[in-house]
Every structure is written in structure tokens, then in C-alpha cells.
Fold this protein.
Amino acid sequence: MESYDIKDPKLAEGGRRRIQWAAREMPVLASIRERFEKEQPLKGIRMSACLHVTTETANLMHTLQAGGADVVLVASNPLSTQDDVAASLVTHYEIPVHAIKGENNVVYYKHINTAIDHKPHITMDDGADLVSTLHKDRRENLDHVIGGTEETTTGVIRLRAMAADGALQFPVIAVNDAMTKHFFDNRYGTGQSTLDGIIRATNMLLAGKTFVVAGYGWCARGLAQKAKGMGANVIVTEIDPLKALEAVMDGFRVMKMVDAAPIGDIFCTLTGDINVVDKHHFEVMKDGAIVSNSGHFNVEINIPALEEMSVEKRLVRPFVDQYELPDGRNIHLLGEGRLINLAAAEGHPASVMDMSFANQALSAEYMVKNADKLESMVYSVPEDIDMEIARLKLEAMGIDIDVLTEEQVAYLNSWQEGT
Ligand SMILES: NC(=O)c1ccc[n+]([C@@H]2O[C@H](COP(=O)([O-])OP(=O)(O)OC[C@H]3O[C@@H](n4cnc5c(N)ncnc54)[C@H](O)[C@@H]3O)[C@@H](O)[C@H]2O)c1
């Protein structure tokens, strides 16, 4: 096997048990793996994946490998790696992994460069750091690449910006665009696991707390709903009037962040934007306020401003940094402002990643079959793949749905029939 860089191979056994536990909730991916084993659609394909190294990702790697791919995995975030999973992938699955939880930025990019050294035909990204490094610093390796896939909203936004600039040099499939991805992963997965991360980091009771959710997109909607379900008083902040209106009609208080800042107990940003919680917000927050982020990058909270304002910073619990301000107030930042569901918890539950990663596996297969017909653009997941995943998921859940009768098909396709 190629070289690897992980925390400790001795963690492998525990990692394997957790990978197998996740597999129980991933029946769609399992059915794809079975077909891949027989058909070998990825035979001879070198793949470099830059994803959160979790139990669910391990099941995806195993599926790609079963399809014949030669896979290397690196982290897509310095704090999201599960070291036992990395150890098991290396030890039991013979998949080279370069990822260590808590790696610094230099090591993070060293690992991404290792993924590029693999000379991938296909890139698989979560946040587009791999594709962006390839285009910025390692252009001599662009020739081998036939295409890529991208997992998350922020990555898709970056790739569309690259395509609009004429910079993107190969086709990429936006897995996030699939309905079987963002309807479920972003909403239910991020919603539940973000609360899980905040609770694991703080062990605080949510009932009765004022919980400020920044954004009301797919992820934030899920979080707002779940926090409400736990008895929190939820406030939503938005910049999009339509989303703000939707939040109002869903029963949430909507206001500007500057108005929410003095009354919030817990804050969580899920916008994909920068400095959503900023210096002037910290200035008016209550003593003890908890600030967290579950958007892709750690720029949603202005951490440099908080550092500059503070007279002291201390780690009071794992994943909880307490910043003391000159007037004696304390503000608590969770997980260094990185995706809290992956930093302090385990990321999305396997049941939703089953669909997200089914999209990844089938998109990789589609890319291998169709790359020569695609341009250097960002493509959505083909609708038939999306629908097939929904069908397989329902089947795995033992749920039957109605099928249109011939009469109904004719009716729905006619314009003559009216009142
Ligand atoms: N934590 C995770 O595991 C996880 C999972 C999926 C996606 N993500 C990331 O979460 C982020 C959000 O993803 P999404 O799918 O919900 O995107 P989305 O586009 O559906 O929603 C983002 C929302 O934020 C709003 N917004 C932008 N700037 C704002 C501001 N300054 N104040 C308030 N609202 C603002 C937008 O109007 C939009 O409604 C992205 O960075 C995405 O990559 C994280």
C-alpha cells in the first residue's frame, strides 16, 4: 500500500466496529457496492477523495474500492477526522489515508497535496479545497483528471465561481444539488448533528434557552426545527427576504443579528458567508453566550476580532474556548468555529449519508462513463440517479408508494380535460 499519515494504527479495531455500525444504516450504498463488485465500473480509475473522515465516508471508500477504484483519502477539514476510522481504513481496507484530527493548516494542505500526488482521474471534494489547490498550485496534474464530484453547498458555490471565471478545467458533478442530498443531509442531518455537537460540547439544557440560528437555508432550517423541538426559543436571522418570511411563517422570531446578539444564549451560524457574527455583535452579547458554527468554513464567526477584543482565552472544556472581555464578560466559542457537528460530535447520521454517498458513488460511475461528453462546467446529478436513490431508500425502509395508472398518466399529460 502507498504511504499513509494517521494518528495511531492501534485505534483500528474500534474504528472497524463503528464503520460496521454505520453500514447497518446504509442499505442503498450497500446495494450499490454489491453491483459495483460484479460490474467493476471504476476499474483502473485513480480517485482522490477529500472528505470528512467519518464512519460513513469509510463505507463510501469501501464501495468505490469494490467498484475497482484505486482510492486515496484526505481530510476536508482539520478538525473533522475520526482517528479510529482513519486507522481502520488503513489497516483493514488497505486504503491510504492522510488525515489526523487537529492537524494544523500546513499539514492539512500537505495532505491535500498528497492526494494530488496520487494523480487522480476523478476528484471527490467536500468544500472544493482539493480542486482549488489543483488549479492554483499543481496545474501540471490537471491533465490526468477526467472529472470530479463535490459534496457541499460551499464547494458548489466555489466551483460555479471557477466555472464562471473560465478557470475550471474539468467537469464536476454537484452532488449537493441532488434532492436526495440536500433535502435530507443538509436539513435532517445537519439539524440533528449540529444540536448533538453543541450538546456534547457544553452539556447544556436547550429548553428555555434563546437559540439564535443565522440563516434559514437547508441546514439552518433543520437546526431551527430541531432546537424548537427541544424547547428552545428560536430566533432566525437572514438576508434573503423570502427565507426570512418562510421562517416567520414557520413560527420563528426573525430579526437582525445586532438585535438578537444581546438576547441570545446560544448562537449557531449556517450561512456559508463571512463574519455573520462580528465584533459589534460580541460587544453586546450576554455574559456566558455560546457561539458556534456549522457552515463549511470557520469564517462565519469573526474569530480574529474576538481574539483581539479579549484579555484572556482559556479552554474550559474540550471544544469550549472561553474568551474574557475587558468588562469581565465571557464569550464561549465552540470547536474553534469549525463545523461543530463534526468537531464535537460525529457528523451526520449514517441514514442520511447513505443517500448523499449513493449520489457520490453513482456520480463517479456516471463521470467515468460520460466524461468525454461533458464540458468543464458544474453539472447537477442526473435526475434518474436522484430518483433511483429515493426509490432504493424507500424500498430499504419497507415503504411502498402508489404508481400512476394509465388513466392518470393520460390525464396528467392532457390539456383538454377541465371542469
Ligand atoms: N455542518 C455540516 O455538516 C454541513 C452539511 C451541509 C452543508 N454545510 C454547509 O452549511 C452552509 C449552509 O449550507 P445550506 O445548504 O444551508 O445553504 P443555503 O444556501 O441553503 O442556505 C444559506 C442561507 O444563509 C443565508 N445567509 C447568507 N448570508 C447571511 C447572513 N449574513 N446572515 C444571515 N443569513 C445569511 C442565505 O440567504 C441562505 O438562505 C454551507 O457552508 C454548507 O457548505 C454544512
Q: What stands out?
A: The pocket of nicotinamide-adenine-dinucleotide is lined by residues 152-154, 182, 186, 190, 214-220, 237-240, 243, 270-273, 276, 294-296, 339, 341, 348 (CB under 6 Å). The first helix runs from residue 12 to 23. The mean pLDDT is 97. Residues 28 and 194 are 24 Å apart (CA to CA).
